[in-house]
Amino acid sequence: MALFQEMEEKKLDHNIVFYNILMYSMCNAEELTTAREIFNSLLAKGLQPDVRTFTIMIKGFCKEGLINEATELLEKMDGNHFSPDDRTYNTIIKGLLQQNETTKAMELIKIMVDKGFSANATTASMLVDLLSANLGDKTLQELLHC
Questions:
Q1: Which of 49, 76, 86, 107 could be 53's S-S partner, Cβ–Cβ 3.0 to 4.6 Å?
Q2: What does the pLDDT look like over 95-138, one tens digit per residue?
Q3: How far is the C-alpha of 58 from the C-alpha of 14, rounded, in Å?
Q4: CA 82 → CA 52, 115, 144, distances in Å?
Q5: pTM of this structure
Q6: Which domain holds residue 26?
Q7: Residues 6+ apart with CB under 8 A from 19
Q8: For the domain that residue 25 is a member of, what is the CATH number?
């Protein structure tokens, strides 16, 4: 953060990759508030968030159990003409599954598959574990019939 502040004070040119690294680091250090402040300041700095920027913040929200904020950001992302990629979908689906939001996760899996993406190994493993633990769940049974 000290390096970041010094760079800002000297008005050194930054790009979105620099801010993505910074936000990623803040989220990993459980400094979500700082990451959110940086994210919210991007437009004022003349920088446009990219898919990776949104995915980093979605992961940060999921890590803190803030699923509503993560899904709102996904909707905002889609509304701002940024198409989520497979990493974005897998990130939020894992967050939803960790919070037992099975129905929402299944909805996103269907959207992800319809857009030509697939679950990564971690997401697939979580689904298998969920299926074996909850075979009576109607939503999961519908997924098996697809």
A1: 49
A2: 998 888 888 988 898 899 899 998 888 888 887 777 777 654 56
A3: 22
A4: 10, 14, 30
A5: 0.83
A6: 2-145
A7: 38, 42, 47, 53
A8: 1.25.40.10
